Amino acid sequence: xxxxxxxxxxxxxxxxxxxxxxxxxxxxxxxxxxxxxxxxxxxxxxxxxxxxxxxxxxxxxxxxxxxxxxxxxxxxxxxxxxxxxxxxxxxxxxxxxxxxxxxxxxxxxxxxxxxxxxxxxxxxxxxxxxxxxxxxxxxxxxxxxxxxxxxxxxxxxxxxxxxxxxxxxxxxxxxxxxxxxxxxxxxxxxxxxxxxxxxxxxxxxxxxxxxxxxxxxxxxxxxxxxxxxxxxxxxxxxxxxxxxxxxxxxxxxxxxxxxxxxxxxxxxxxxxxxxxxxxxxxxxxxxxxxxxxxxxxxxxxxxxxxxxxxxxxxxxxxxxxxxxxxxxxxxxxxxxxxxxxxxxxxxxxxxxxxxxxxxxxxxxxxxxxxxxxxxxxxxxxxxxxxxxxxxxxxxxxxxxxxxxxxxxxxxxxxxxxxxxxxxxxxxxxxxxxxxxxxxxxxxxxxxxxxxxxxxxxxxxxx
Length: 462
Fold this sequence. Notes:
mainly alpha; 3-stranded mixed beta sheet; two-stranded antiparallel ribbon; 5 strands
């Protein structure tokens, strides 16, 4: 193992040799910004990238299992719309509570371990869901509890992923990794919809839970056997170096970082982007169903996500290319976020115009808006690793928690607006307004220079 004091804004040359990793900016190496991390060699990054892509895909398959099976389950157990909504909403309440905890745990012991444990547990919950449904007469309560537990266990995933990026991956490759992971979520949504429809019709709704739970358990087993069981993965961070009292993160130190404009502007922008995305995704099927009742369901349930996957990968390539060409990381982050929030808002607002009333035009506008929104993977979603890499998991968890809570508020408010105004224009205007607020704040106060340097310690390259 070779120990290096490294940092900076870019890698001008990342050698395949494990002994030659160094970080440079504009051809000059810097050693004045140490990173509290242990970097993976490129070969290991590629292996983990594939595993995390599959893991993200399975995560969304499991997350979408209940919404896809909800109609069949409601018929079987005679649930009302309010009772079905209670079961579905249980996930989001649980999802909010473990964001910060999962990120903090990942910062301390490594996100790959947190992902392994949480995946094994939510895979078990998925497999046991059909069993719990028939365990007693209190099916509604048990299913709500199961969804709440699913949210608790999956809430650690993306904070852990942010922690992995900041601890194990060089800065110039983090945007690509995050975009790959988000592409996995879109693929998982597609597979859950396509596979779920067939399995529910052919074999009944329990089959979907059994299948996804088994595949998720298999993923966790592979991660243990191929990565965590041996000596390939570095041990917890504390075993590689002595952490000074300044690296022992506590609430007061993190609150001091929140006073810095780049940090709170990043959190605000992420909250706006995440909440508007959740609102749009929650109401789009209803919008198409009510506005174009004769349209084919699969078109608006599949096409936007097919567009999202290549769009996310294109955004990742563009981000890494601009950084490699010498553009500052701050300007690249803001450019990507401008496309994600500003560009998507333009196409969302087009849906409010009465001139565009055809199904084809609406589908095109929605697909472009969803595609552009994926660029946030190279914007605020990765900005937390620029600003606070030593506690990126905890900060990303806090940001995700804000986005989840705000999403609940916007989804409810949108339903109220539809009920009162009898118009979808008010909802699309609300989404565009919140997006614009977040974008303006990020453009004015956002940055990509580290703000936690006084607490950081040295980097180790394995």
